[in-house]
Amino acid sequence: MQPPPERTAPDAENAPPTGPGPGRTLGQEAAGGGAPGDARATGSPSAEGSSVPGPRTGAAKAGRVTLRSDLRASWPDGLVALAITAALSALIWARINSRASSTATVMPFMADDPEAFLLYFLSQAFGWSALLWAWITVVLGLLLSGPRPARLPLSGPRLERLHRTTSLNTIALIAAHALLFAAELIRHNDAAWYGAAWTAFVETFVPGGYESGTGRIAIPVGQAALYLAIPLGLLFYIRHRIGPKTWRVLHRFVLVVYVLSVWHTLLYGTNVWYDGWFRTSVWLLQIPIAALFLARLLSPARRSERLPALAAVPGGGKPLWTARAAGRAAAAAVLVVLVAILVTGRDGGREEPPADTTSTHNHD
């Protein structure tokens, strides 16, 4: 979940190789098509006007974006994420204790003894924080790759760094959500610890391993989000090895990770199990995503992705133009559907509790 190529040079991979411009790090230059440390990024003009390799200075090394540097920079929004997770955990517990949450209907045994399921509530809180941080990451990415508002509280480079750090924290929050869910399964399993740990591992991390009700679909969807988020988020740091074009193609699948996360939440988030304001608020958050995605398709930062440029591509221009136009129509349709859900408060999901709300993990 990393930033797209530098907005100020949307077609850098098609331009003649140059050194990094003012204010651009070597890492950002690599995203535009050059590799850090090569002659095009660090060279100096020769007498003939070409670039020759120059010495790798300490400043150049320091300017390159690395996983280590982003991990160091990620702690401020990481602390904010933990604070929000703690608040959400308290809110979830209070709603369960007062039986205001859908969870009390889906799994009434938890409402009877909420203190015994604190790990589950904490897992839910991390899941909600992960979804919120994924939302922030996608919004930042769309702001960077589409038409950017004239006034933003952060500059482009700072937005890019925040986009990267929220991406890393999203991965951490998803992992914590899954691990706490596994810990909850272990805690309420009467088998020997190694047997309970193995069962929890299979049910939490192996596709098809969870065989209870809605979880047969919802858990694999969440697993897919986790297993895609990790490589897609970390590929940014080796984009100079796989090539910027390959990285950009793979990076677009980040939106798929976000869609899977929302799908997992609506399917398995017992807090939003039935229609109501809490579930509708989840849909409300998707409207900015859809609007920004449509704006990104209508006016992408990269000139080579705009419809006139696609139409001018020799040979394959028409299919590319058609695909881009179809994407615009689909994004507009999704936006209309989201507004309809928000207005009606109905999304075609569960409207009332089923007759049988028992769970295979009911440990009464």
Automatic annotation (TrEMBL):
UniProt keyword annotation of Aminoacyl-tRNA synthetase present: no
Pfam short name (any one): Ferric_reduct
What InterPro entries does the record tag this protein with? Fe3_Rdtase_TM_dom
Show where the Ferric oxidoreductase domain sits. Answer: 133-261
Compartments (UniProt record): Membrane
The Gene Ontology CC terms held by the record are: membrane
Cytoplasm keyword on record: no
**Superkingdom of origin organism:** Bacteria
Specify the protein's topology with respect to the membrane: Multi-pass membrane protein
Q: What segment(s) does the record annotate as region Disordered?
A: 1-61
Protein name in UniProt:
Ferric oxidoreductase domain-containing protein
Organism source for this protein? Streptomyces tsukubensis (strain DSM 42081 / NBRC 108919 / NRRL 18488 / 9993)
